[in-house]
Specification:
The chain has 213 residues and is an alpha+beta fold. The protein is built from 7 helices and 6 strands, in the order E-H-E-E-E-E-H-E-H-H-H-H-H. The chain has one domain: Alpha-Beta Plaits, CATH 3.30.70.1290. The strands form 2 sheets. A 4-stranded antiparallel β-sheet has the order 2-3-1-6. It has a two-stranded antiparallel sheet with strand order 4-5.
Length: 213
């Protein structure tokens, strides 16, 4: 697998980062909600989110970047796809988003909110943010389990069901959600199997080693 610097369109990634010097990124409920709102603002326009976890001093997000033609800027516009994969929009000059910049904007916007709220200065996140290209189907399920099991691994709870700041509850709920719940559960064949596998012990350390955390 390739650990790349620039995010590309139409690829799966595990995005993760932690507070500089292990500082807590989230001190109260409003902080978690603010980060989730910023995820919606900066990541949803350019990606599909499958799983996430917010732990006090770090976060994990599993997503797939959209194809260029799926971006909102192309809605309602006519464009021509040529053989070299470059997009020329008829009578329009459009700026294609920088995917890595979108993640950086998320972190920067949250850092600004956090520093103002808690009257601090300086860097909040480690830089640059970490990303892992996922090109092996075997790791889709393992990463979902790893992300949802992260609060258990860090001893904030005994089961993902008990921790409110991951996408696990959205996956097992029938309520409206912004993650692609159907695809995630589909990787486990069905909801019962999804729940069953989340009841077992997850090999967190082997995935940490693979991620080079």
């Amino acid at each position: 697998m390739e650990n790349i610097k620039i995010l590309k369109f139409d690829h799966y990634y595990h995005i993760y980062n932690k507070g500089v010097n292990d500082i807590d990124l989230f001190r109260e409920h409003k902080d978690y909600y603010r980060f989730l709102n910023l995820m919606d603002k900066y990541l949803l326009p350019v990606s599909t989110i499958y799983a996430w976890a917010l732990i006090p001093n770090h976060f994990h997000i599993l997503l797939k970047t959209k194809k260029v033609e799926e971006l909102d800027i192309f809605k309602g516009l006519k464009y021509l796809l040529v053989s070299n994969r470059q997009y020329f929009v008829i009578k329009h000059s459009l700026k294609i988003p920088n995917l890595s910049k979108q993640v950086s904007n998320l972190c920067n916007a949250y850092a600004k909110y956090y520093n103002i709220k808690y009257r601090r200065r300086g860097t909040l996140f480690e830089r640059p943010f970490k990303r892992k290209l996922i090109d092996n189907k075997y790791y889709f399920k393992r990463l979902v389990l790893y992300i949802h099991y992260n609060p258990v691994h860090h001893k904030f709870c005994e089961h993902p069901l008990e921790y409110p700041w991951t996408s696990y509850l959205s996956c097992i709920s029938m309520h409206k959600t912004k993650i692609d719940r159907n695809t995630v559960v589909g990787w486990f064949d069905n909801l019962n199997n999804f729940k069953r596998l989340h009841n077992g012990n997850i090999e967190v350390y082997s995935i940490d080693e693979w991620l080079e955390i």
